[in-house]
Amino acid sequence: MKQNSLYRIFTIVWMAVGFFIRVMWFQKRHPGRMSPETTAKWEDLLRKIAAKYKRKALHLQGLLIKLGQFLSARADVVPQAFIEEMTDLVDQVPAVPWEEACAVLQSEWGAPYGSVLHKISERPVASASIGEVYHAYLHDGTEVAVKIQRPGIEKIIRADFRAIKIVCWLADKFTKIRNQADLPALYREMTYVIGDELNFKQELKNGEYFAARYENNPDLYIPKYHPAHCTRRVLVMEWMEGARVNDYNYLATHNIDRKDLAVKLFRAVAEQLFFEGKFHADPHPGNILIQPSGRIVLIDFGMVGTIKKDDAKHIQDLVEGLVLKDYGKVIDALERLRFLLPHADRHELERVIQLAVRFYDEEDLANVDHATVQHILEDIQSVIRKQPIQLPSDFIFLGRALSTFIGVLYGLDPQIELVEVGKPIVTEWMSKNGKNAEDSQAGSQASTTLKLVQKYALDIGRQLLKLPRQLSEALEEPRRRTEWEKTKQRNQFLHEVYASRKRYAFFTLLAGIAAAGLGYFFSDPYLLWGGGALAFLSAIWYRNSAVKHMRWIEDLR
């Protein structure tokens, strides 16, 4: 039954609608700042939602497992109450019966598995949403891991994508999630990523690329593959001992310092995300193993993205600008990376970036007043909403990888200073840039030193030139804050009015359709015609409310 497409679509959409209603009802009953008692109730609601999602994901499997996997790695933004329920979701995926997995294996090899393997475990050592991993031995005694794709997974994934598309549409129309995520872009990313992950031959190519890239890195290891035995639905690779990076008891047992491991992991993996070339786009805890010696093992290269040479240079400029607090350079890099359109207000964007960095540098985020945090975040969000900012499709993959990776780092060390840890990488970039300049000028060390001095002199000069404008902006800040608060409150009120009208119209429409359906089923003409009339009037109500809401949004722009 769970492989039936209509059943899967209905079940996933109905579950999501239930979650939306529970969250909206809670927010309606508890508006404004949350007290400790309200916060406890909110966390309890999240646990219940996460528990129900987890049960449904384990029953249906497929794409729901991948979504839970992603959420469990977002320690930087997802509430801890949700993560506690979702963390072990991937480890509890039910295994496929050995007979079915064996049939896939022998179909791909076109021969009995004994022609390749001396022996193989009939129970998987790891079971995930796309494939399962078995412990096996080749005839020469080599210990290997055999990854076999789940039977029928392609059909299941296609049905789940249809359901997720409907859920994204509902969330975009009726919830506040649309203010925090580009749901259409997220959906496009998922279809692109999962499509590649279903082809194990592509994963083989990716794994061999990273093995060559990290061949001389003592801190990070990539398992070797056996290409002769790899197909579209089967992978054979080197067997690796180790535990997941978030198995903190394992780390303590082997005396592995979590802070040191976080720094080592950052330095080993971050260069993928800032230099040109391919990067691991799914660095969640299950794909990062730690061996007893503390060595990091990176596995599962089904999801991989690419950074172009020019974009890598602009990303380096962006990070360098943040570390050196050269916010003009940050804005320049964002423009070249296509995040900003030409008519963006550079001064206003530079101000909020400076505000965010200064707050990060000076405040103890663990003890700061939540109202202050919310105040600053709202200021930043307000500026971003008004500015012509876009998310280029090339960077959806990269943004997801960064957020997942940062979540893993903060799980290891909640106090990690990413800016400080990143300074050696920036220093390497600067030294390389200096070396390139030196080589192009016939190896003149004096010329290189002079250029570096000039560069820092110009940096200091730019900061001094900015000082009068920054002082003026600081004096104007209270007045602008008052005006902004009034505008924000008025717009928030109007937005809630329009959104409430659409919600009520939508649920009335659903009630009319349900009544008409019951009338048809029980041959009750009153329910049939009454429900039909209610649905028709509700559809008109919803359309008029949506049009007015859209016109109001356009006027704001």
From TrEMBL:
Membrane spanning segments where?
6-25, 504-520, 526-542
Which residues are in the Protein kinase domain? 119-494
Q: Name one GO molecular function term.
A: kinase activity
Q: Which domain of life is it from?
A: Bacteria
Q: Which UniProt keywords apply?
A: Kinase, Membrane, Transferase, Transmembrane, Transmembrane helix
Q: Which family does it belong to?
A: Belongs to the protein kinase superfamily. ADCK protein kinase family.
Protein name in the entry? AarF/ABC1/UbiB kinase family protein
Q: Which organism is it from?
A: Tumebacillus amylolyticus
Q: What is the lineage of its organism?
A: Bacteria, Bacillati, Bacillota, Bacilli, Bacillales
